[in-house]
Structure formats: C-alpha cells, structure tokens
Task: structure prediction
Amino acid sequence: MHYEPLRPHRMYGIPDRYEFTHGDCSVCVYDFDTLQFVKEIPVGTHPDCHATSGDGEWLYIACFEGLYCIRQSTLTVEKVLDTGRIYATNVLPDGQTMLVHDCMGGVLVIDDICRMDRIRVRCRTQVLPERVYRREIGGKGNFIDDRYYLCAGWRSAKLFLFDGADHFSVKTFMDSDPLLDGGDDLVLSADKRKAYIACHQRDARAHVAVVDVENRQILQTIPTGTGTCGLTMTCDERYVIASNDHDDSISVIDTQTDRVVNTPCARAGFDALGIIGYIQGISCGRDDSIYVYGCKGNGALVRFTDICCGSHYEISTAAQLRRAP
Result:
C-alpha cells in the first residue's frame, strides 16, 4: 500500500468517511462513497493542503491564520494551532507527527497531532536562505525510509533532504537545475530508486521529472499537461498520477516504462456545471480511484475511476452531482 502523507489512515486500513475540498475560506465535506455534499465548515483565509491523522479522526487544513484541526466525528473545528502562514501538510508514517511548510521558505515539525491538549510546534527549519514571503518549497514530499524525507524546491529548482533522526535538519539533495523548476509534489517508486517530481510551468506544458535517487541525477522528463502540481500513486505503486491543474485532467504514468498511458479529463463536466477551473490536490483511494478537487467558490470534488484505460469521472458540488461515462 502506497504511503500518502495527505491520507495516512488508508495505509493502516482505516476506512474513509469523507472526502474534502476547500473554497475561499472554508472546507467542504462530501460523503466518500456517494460523493453527496455533507457540510461546509468555515476556516481561515487561503486554505490550501489538507491531511488526515493516522487514526482517521482528524482533518488538518493549512490556512494563513494557522493549522485548523477538525474532528471528523463531529465535523467541527476543535483547535487552531498558531503556525503563521502555512500552505502544505505532510503527516509522517508514525501518524502522530506532521511536517508543515510555511510561506517563508521554512518547515515546522508538529508533534502530538492527535491530541488537541498536547499538539505543539516542536521546531522550525529555514530551508531557503532568504526568508522572503511566498518563496516556498514544494508542497508534498515523501519518505525514502523511516528516517529521510525528500522534498522538491518549487522555484529554487532544487531537491531537499530532511533527516528525521536529527530534528529534521535539512541538506540540499540536488542543486538547482532548470528541469526541476516549479517542483511541487514528489513521490517515490516502490523500490525507492526513482523520485518523480511534478514541475509546474506557469505558461507552458509542464512535466514530471524522474530522478535517480542513488546517483542524484535527472533520468528524463515526462510531458504531462498545463499547470501540473499534484502527484500521487496507485496502491501498488505501479502508476504515478499527476493532476494537471489548468487542464482539468490527470496524467497516468506507468513507472515500468515512464510513459503517460492515459489522460482522463473532466473539462466537459466542469463546463456543464459552470465551474471555471481549476483542480488542485490529489489522492488515491484504496480501490485506486483518484480524487482531485476544484478550489473556486466552495470547491468541487472529482473522482476518476478506471484510470489506466478509461475516462470515467464524477463531479460533486454543494449544489449537484454529475457523472460522465
């Protein structure tokens, strides 16, 4: 089972109750099985990445006012942890610790994330030398093993390695390379020999860079779509799935050939519902269904199925649910 830092409970066999999207200042809750809208929960401004706890009880969403902690059994905000302006959430395999990326090029370590009476910021590491607002690193990294966490560098075009045995101190894993520019989400192959990095391009077709982890060199780039940011993997880690934010599509990459084998697109469904861009965030369910979400208005949830050879999807909003063959 692939370890997903945004949905760690799935690896532990804990079933999903809900899936989530975000709007301008809220989290929208959907029934996981039916995709029916359940509730809209007010949170802070600029909500971005959201993650669940290892036990599946908590939802965390990064906002400019801090880390909002929502209890899933009641769908209420129980605590707002003072972290400063943050945008990315990554839960560690212990299910109790989180790495949160802030808007000043730093990473915070959060302890005891399942205990609202004990949750706290343990430490902060400045990753980028210049502490400049909105100069961040990539959103979601992944784990080479129980000790090391590998993350992309966004516009620094680098890769960074965090050492969990040394208070998550950071070193440069790969120096700046134009092919790593816009590096956002990162996943690792099943054997941990290859890293896949979603490289977002503002005005051009994006790509996924494939890196040889042992030799620290780029093996190739795989063309994807426009605005590629999010990455996840199927449960057996055979396929990497990239979300193409401005195409309303996903690219399915076979890790055995490192080629795109399918590009399902939900644009027609978005147009029919009157939704104007764009999809953001991506995770994989235990049946290999792929969930992405729109983040305009109060958000829209998209579920792709039969991803390797089909183009089936469903889109759910607070107002309606639409299915496509």
Remarks:
- Helices lie at 267-273.
